[in-house]
Design goal:
Order of helices and strands: HHHHEEEEHE
Mean pLDDT: 89
Largest sheet: 5 strands, antiparallel
Oligomer: single chain
Number of helices: 5
Helix content: 25-40%
Length: 214
Amino acid sequence: MHPASIAFRRAGFTLIEILAVMVIIGILGFYLVRNLPDYFDTAEVRACSANLSEVYTGITLYKSKYNRIPAKSGAAFFAELISKGAISNTKTNARRFTCPAVDIGSLAIRDLDPEEWWTDLDLVDGTWSAYAGRDSERFPLRKFPGDGKEPLVADDNDGGMNHRTTTNVLYADGSVQTFELFEERERGSVGPEEEILLVGPDSPIEDLQKLSLD
């Protein structure tokens, strides 16, 4: 047999080798598909955290322009950043004022152009966003920038967790911190049967009581 033919035959794969590769790919695919929800949720938590950091920048610009922070509560707290012109009313900025993990179709803004979402504060309430804003009426913020003890904006978890187990919270020092549902269960803050970490005056977490969904 010609040497080149022998070399060609040796370069091919045997049936056993092909089957082994298929099994390995199948196993990897199984674990990848099984963990996809976790990967998506992690990405959404990070995107949400980035949103909140941009909200903080907006509050800083508002303070620089008006020498005070927004006086409204709930969703209107951060909506005021656009309605008062502290930041530009663009589609990108408008979308930063609601959690990316929550479907826009479930909110009152679903049929409106993004540039209409935050312009009329008389219309804005908790149904317009999946974020909860500072309850300025009950808990006026005495200093800004402040420290990591004063929450400004957070996931509202209205009707369920915005993220599978994580609640992002923006604080007055610009940090974005998290509360994990399972950790709060271990601390005894919520019962083992609780599937939602409440945000607002009825929350078991003191920081989250300073926020409003209205």
